């Protein structure tokens, strides 16, 4: 059903059959250290988390369809938005990106047999799974789950204001998933630095791998700070310390500094992997190399570096850290992000664009991220932040961002899923899913921008009767339902396409190494490798007469034009 | 492209409010208006850059679709083009930043004070104290308190919190500021229109956050003095006893019976 543009290259196993006779079935899943199986476990678990978090979102949106709805109580509402944010950020987006996609794809993209520390990789997954269950189990204890927002601002999160065990389970779950992220960061960094195949120099690595390297370094810089903060919070709650309490001489705003020193790099820890995904999809489905490959890498590095110096833009309205530094640093992030946008467009420009589901998702990502990115520039300006902070404008802004990431992630699943499973997903259902998701996102986010500008604050379960807010809220709910339908369609597609469409090794005429091996790859990924002389070894092997060119038809050697 | 961006902004400065609102409102204070103009300027820039990107994406998606099994030109680098879209955005954000700083410095400046109001946020209500006037207004979730202030005067707010973090958010002033325990936050408003403005806490502060609403009532000097005199002898008055019996809280969900400790 897909157009295979070239005869697929079949990597010949040295000897057919199982090269590792290990346990099978559930025992294999429990004991595996294979990055592909761990990555798949991560992907499935995190998609389940997305469905759980999405269900919370649908309840929240249902509550807001009328000004004084009594679908949930105020207490339940606080739990729902707290756990919606926590599940989506901590248990879905990050683990899906660096535990799922990166785990499955990075070793194959650089020609490595596995991650550098396979057992640590398994530990990461099990910490993530137990942490997720720990956090969600808050719903089953007296007092309910955590209810102080996903940012857990002190002193609301102390033991007087939030006495329940749900908050402790939230902290515990976050510590466990935090360690899981740190170990994955260690693993990715070591893998990318030490396990590259011969010929795979740093500047021949695919952009996805580059982005995962920067992401992993950001994880190593940011997550330990969150871990330390959570331990301080736990000590304040149970061991009588007063780090964040005024009464004991502590400083509540310190929690915000610690949280956002993790939290802002975290935004890019979430975003960079998906930037990487669309930077893989767009060139393949345009049949062109990444335009400005090196510029793309420097843009990623710049975003990573700047992201460490912008945390206080979440705190402009505290009045205590209103420094121009944080404003200009936040503004500057627009520059490398803009470079990426123009490079993506440059990649598509005069290409041969194939609108597969993966490519549609990537283009949908571009539009949605554009909206989120531009509204992000507004928020870098403190006076504008003063009147939009903690309103639905900010909610809409970051939902444009994260829903763009969902589009990118879905694109990644349609693009790389066949490599890992060996089977393609149905393209027709995929395209219907795309339109539900894409239109749903816009119908969901755009009214929320207006709501914020008309004064609706975040995290309220009701609102005044006399305003235009009701219609806008109902529109946003319609969008949320469309997004929900798209998720159902995705699950339907998996069921419908189950082992139906064999993918072959290289269904998209791919550029990078993962398309050189079989689908699914053998236990240690490769039986043979092509010569790696650019960032497109598989393309070079299949199209030896079509190397990348500098504008004006000069050849390129390692990114430098040969004049 | 820099000139294209600069022109509408210059026009905006001259023409004032003839420019579209882009969803925001000018508000009723001096600084809310300058913030609003900043918002308009950002929106014009955003509209231009955003449309450019959208048109480029749509153009390539529509006109560069696959035709058969061709392999297009494998262009990977075009250094002058790439440098252009590094350098132009740098100047654009520096321009936006400079304008931001002008507006921000004006907004956070501390001019001479005509009236001082101490605002204390607590779970879940507001206390407005008028120092030297023996007037205190307290309101909880069952009754919205009202902060009365005179028009065309510099009103200085001393904002504190008794327990957790709250946010003093007045939508018609285009402004919010967190009320932090242990911190005194100070800022000044100068309202230019009289009226009553619905406001509320915008930082999650616990169970009844949704109901932590208040009103800001901007009145003339004589009305303000009459109001002060009527309140001065009442001591600690309940909020808005006479005028607002009918409009109590504008939000309907279940009212708390106790204000604290029942979560």
Estimated structural class of chain A: mainly alpha
Estimate what percentage of residues of chain A fall within beta strands: under 5%
* Helix content class of chain A: 55-70%
Helix tally of chain B? 4
Strand % of chain B is: 25-35%
Overall mean confidence score, pLDDT of chain B:
84
Quick structural overview:
The complex is a heterodimer of chains A (563) and B (263). With 563 residues, chain A is mainly α.
Write the layout of secondary structure elements.
The complex is a heterodimer of chains A (563) and B (263).
Chain A: H1 25-31, H2 35-63, H3 74-109, H4 118-136, H5 165-194, H6 207-238, H7 252-286, H8 293-307, H9 324-332, H10 334-348, H11 357-379, H12 382-388, H13 392-421, E1 423-424, H14 427-453, H15 469-496, E2 501-502, H16 537-542, E3 549-550, E4 554-557, E5 560-562
Antiparallel strand pairs in A: 1-2, 3-4, 4-5
Helix pairs in contact in A: 2-3, 2-4, 2-15, 3-4, 3-5, 3-6, 3-7, 3-13, 4-5, 5-6, 6-7, 6-8, 7-8, 7-10, 7-11, 7-13, 8-10, 11-13, 11-14, 13-14, 14-15
Chain B: H1 2-15, H2 30-63, E1 75-77, H3 79-108, E2 115-122, E3 125-130, E4 135-139, E5 146-150, E6 154-161, E7 166-170, E8 175-179, E9 185-190, E10 195-201, E11 213-219, H4 221-232, E12 236-238
Parallel strand pairs in B: 2-6, 4-12, 5-11
Antiparallel strand pairs in B: 2-3, 3-4, 6-9, 7-8, 7-10, 10-11
Helix pairs in contact in B: 1-2, 2-3
């Amino acid at each position: 059903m897909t157009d295979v543009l070239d005869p697929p290259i079949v990597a010949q196993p040295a000897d057919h059959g199982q090269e590792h006779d290990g346990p099978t079935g559930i025992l294999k899943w429990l004991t595996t250290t294979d990055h592909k199986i761990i990555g798949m476990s991560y992907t499935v678990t995190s998609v389940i988390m997305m469905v759980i978090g999405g269900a919370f979102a649908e309840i929240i949106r249902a509550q807001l369809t009328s000004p004084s709805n009594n679908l949930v109580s105020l207490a339940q509402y606080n739990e729902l938005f707290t756990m919606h944010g926590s599940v989506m950020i901590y248990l879905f987006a990050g683990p899906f990106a660096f535990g799922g996609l990166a785990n499955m794809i990075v070793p194959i993209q650089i020609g490595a047999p596995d991650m550098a520390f396979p057992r640590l990789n398994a530990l990461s997954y099990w910490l993530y799974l137990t942490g997720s269950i720990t956090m969600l189990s808050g719903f089953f204890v007296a007092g309910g789950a955590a209810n102080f927002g996903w940012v857990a601002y002190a002193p609301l999160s102390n033991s007087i204001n939030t006495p329940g065990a749900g908050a402790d389970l939230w902290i515990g779950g976050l510590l466990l998933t935090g360690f899981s992220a740190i170990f994955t960061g260690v693993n990715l960094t070591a893998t990318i630095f030490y396990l590259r195949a011969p010929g795979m120099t740093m500047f021949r690595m695919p952009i996805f791998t580059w982005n995962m390297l920067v992401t992993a370094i950001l994880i190593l810089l940011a997550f330990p700070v969150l871990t330390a903060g959570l331990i301080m919070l736990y000590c304040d709650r149970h061991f009588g310390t007063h780090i964040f309490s005024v009464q004991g001489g502590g400083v509540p705003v310190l929690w915000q500094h610690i949280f956002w020193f993790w939290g802002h790099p975290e935004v890019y820890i979430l975003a960079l992997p998906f930037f990487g995904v669309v930077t893989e999809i767009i060139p393949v489905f345009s049949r062109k190399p990444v335009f400005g490959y090196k510029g793309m890498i420097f843009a990623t590095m710049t975003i990573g570096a700047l992201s460490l110096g912008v945390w206080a833009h979440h705190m402009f309205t505290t009045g205590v850290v209103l420094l121009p530094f944080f404003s200009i640093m936040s503004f500057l992030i627009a520059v490398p992000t803009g470079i990426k946008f123009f490079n993506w467009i440059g990649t598509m420009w005069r290409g041969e664009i194939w609108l597969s589901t993966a490519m549609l998702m990537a283009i949908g990502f571009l539009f949605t991220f554009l909206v989120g990115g531009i509204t992000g520039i507004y928020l870098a300006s403190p006076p504008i932040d003063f009147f939009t902070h903690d309103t639905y404008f900010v909610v809409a802004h970051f939902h444009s961002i994260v829903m763009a990431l969902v589009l990118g992630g879905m694109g990644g699943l349609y693009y790389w899923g066949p490599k890992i499973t060996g089977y393609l997903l149905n393209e027709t259902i995929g395209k219907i899913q795309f339109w539900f998701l894409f239109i749903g996102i816009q119908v969901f986010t755009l009214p929320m921008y207006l709501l914020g500008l008309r004064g609706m604050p975040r995290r309220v379960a009701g609102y005044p009767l006399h305003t235009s807010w009701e219609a806008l809220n109902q529109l946003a709910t319609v969008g949320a339902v469309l997004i929900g339908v798209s998720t159902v369609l995705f699950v339907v597609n998996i069921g419908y396409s189950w082992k139906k469409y064999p993918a072959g090794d290289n269904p998209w005429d791919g550029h990078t190494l993962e398309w050189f091996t079989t689908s699914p790859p053998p236990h240690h990924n490769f039986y043979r490798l092509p010569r790696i002389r650019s960032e497109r070894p598989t393309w070079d092997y299949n199209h030896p007469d079509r190397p990348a060119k500098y504008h004006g038809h000069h050849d390129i050697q390692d990114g430098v034009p040969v004049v | 492209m820099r000139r294209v961006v600069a022109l509408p902004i210059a026009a905006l400065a001259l023409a004032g409010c003839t420019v579209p609102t882009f969803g925001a409102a000018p508000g009723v204070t001096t600084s809310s208006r300058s913030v609003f103009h900043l918002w308009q300027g950002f929106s014009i820039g955003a509209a231009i850059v955003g449309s450019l990107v959208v048109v480029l994406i749509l153009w390539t998606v529509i006109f560069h679709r696959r035709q058969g099994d061709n392999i297009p030109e494998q262009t990977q680098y075009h250094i002058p083009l790439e440098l252009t879209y590094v350098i132009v955005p740098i100047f654009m954000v520096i321009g936006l930043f400079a304008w931001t700083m002008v507006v921000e410095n004006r907004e956070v400046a501390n001019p001479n004070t005509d009236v001082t109001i101490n605002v204390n946020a607590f779970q879940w209500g507001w206390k407005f104290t008028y120092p030297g006037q023996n007037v205190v207004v307290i309101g909880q979730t069952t009754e919205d308190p009202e902060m009365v202030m005179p028009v065309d005067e510099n009103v200085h707010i001393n904002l504190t919190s008794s327990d957790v973090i709250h946010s003093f958010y007045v939508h018609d002033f285009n402004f919010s500021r967190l009320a932090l325990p242990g911190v005194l936050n100070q800022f000044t408003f100068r309202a230019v229109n009289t009226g009553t403005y619905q406001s509320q806490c915008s930082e999650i502060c616990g169970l009844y956050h949704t109901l932590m609403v208040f009103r800001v009532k901007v009145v003339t000097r004589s009305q303000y003095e009459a109001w002060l005199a009527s309140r001065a002898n009442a001591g600690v008055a309940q909020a808005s006893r006479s005028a607002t019996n009918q409009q109590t809280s504008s939000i309907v969900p279940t009212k708390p019976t106790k204000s604290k400790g029942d979560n």
